[in-house]
Amino acid sequence: MNRRQLLQVGALAAPTLLLGRVARADEWPSRPVTMMVPFAPGGSSDIVGRAIAQRMSEALGKPVVVENRPGATGELGARLLARSAPDGYLLMTAPISTFAINKALRPNLGYDPITDFTNLTQAVATPNVLVANPKVPANNLQELVAWLKKEGGTSSYSSSGVGSSDHLTMELFKQLTDTNITHVPYSGGGPATTDLIAGNVQLSSQNLGFITPFIRDKRVKAIAVTAAERHALLPDVPTAAEGGLNDFVVSSWQAVAAPPKMAQPLVEKVHAALVAALRHPETVKQMDGIGFSIVASSPADFAAFQKREIDRWTEVVRKGNIRAE
Questions:
Q1: Among the listed residues 169, 167, 165, 187, the one whose alpha carbon sits nearest the alpha carbon of residue 177
Q2: Which candidate, 66, 95, 93, places its Cα nearest to that of 81?
Q3: Chain mean position to CA 24
Q4: Each residue of 189-229: pLDDT tens digit?
Q5: DSSP states of 224-293
Q6: I need a surface site. Which of 81, 194, 197, 268 has the fewest CB within 10 A?
Q7: Distance CA 143, CA 140 (A)
Q8: How many Å apart are CA 264 and CA 118, to the nearest integer?
Q9: What is the distance between the alpha carbons of residues 264 and 153, in angstroms, rounded to a whole number?
Q10: pTM score
Q11: How far apart are CA 124 and CA 51, in angstroms?
């Protein structure tokens, strides 16, 4: 058979091979699925990813196995996802930093969270809580802003790291209130809160679910929640809007993505499985307990939300002249 004949045979076979791939996609999942979390076990992404994986396993009849791939604030796992086959057998649960803040903060990021993923759904969201060391002489937002301006830049705040949600939340707070507070980054929310309790820093903005036990034990003082409405876990804590700061509505969120260029029929099938897992009563109960609300958005709604978040945090980074360390 000459070269021309081989090309003709290949051309005839191509549609058949394509139909074969589509058929296999329609049978998803025929083998175990991996839910990658690009952070260490025990964090919010890990908790959310494992909850989704458990309910998907039960519903699909195939194992959905969580695999932690930590490194470079989620970049290592994100780059792996971007290079993988879009066959539905590798998914990723990751936070706002992976899907939005990294792009705003790091010009040399090794992936694009818009074009290098098939973004499936915003899974959950939770507000942050602006908290203070109990010795700070302020009990509400107005008193805090007045005290910070009187202090003249001598106060500091802790975060779980440069580029984290709590870091940029506090930078937004500084910009909205025209206050000067020194950033002290830590390796996570735990040590950031430990030093807040010890009085080595005066302020922090931590995820509601994480910080609520410390508030209830009076080890930190809650000033405001960064939500449009008061939260059921902290009904006595006012919103920032109640304190006169209408634009200080911030959520820390988790989302699920797949490798780029996933076929639309497979996108629909995987998305349906994710939404069912998120809306399962046991998932809702578990997420409520740690301060997360279920979102389970459509891919289109998530894409629009993600763009707004990237635009917002890009502007905060620009105004604050923030640099990744």
A1: 169
A2: 93
A3: 31
A4: 889 999 999 999 999 999 998 999 999 999 999 999 999 99
A5: EESSSS-BTTBTTSPBTGGGT-TT---EEEEEEEE-SS--HHHHHHHHHHHHHHHTSHHHHHHHHHTTPE
A6: 268
A7: 5
A8: 10
A9: 52
A10: 0.86
A11: 11
Separation CA 165–CA 313 (nearest Å): 10
What DSSP designation does 98 have?
I
33 membership: H or E segment, kind and range = strand 33-37
287 exposed, middle or buried (CB, 10 Å; 0-12, 13-18, 19+)?
Answer: buried
**Amino acid letter for position 19:** L
User: pLDDT tens digits, residue range 269-300?
Assistant: 999 999 999 999 999 999 999 899 999 999 99
Q: Is the peptide bond preceding residue 29 cis, with omega within 30 degrees of 0?
A: yes
Count the Cβ atoms, other than its own, within 10 Å of residue 111. 22
CA-CA distance, 60 to 78, in Å (whole number)? 25
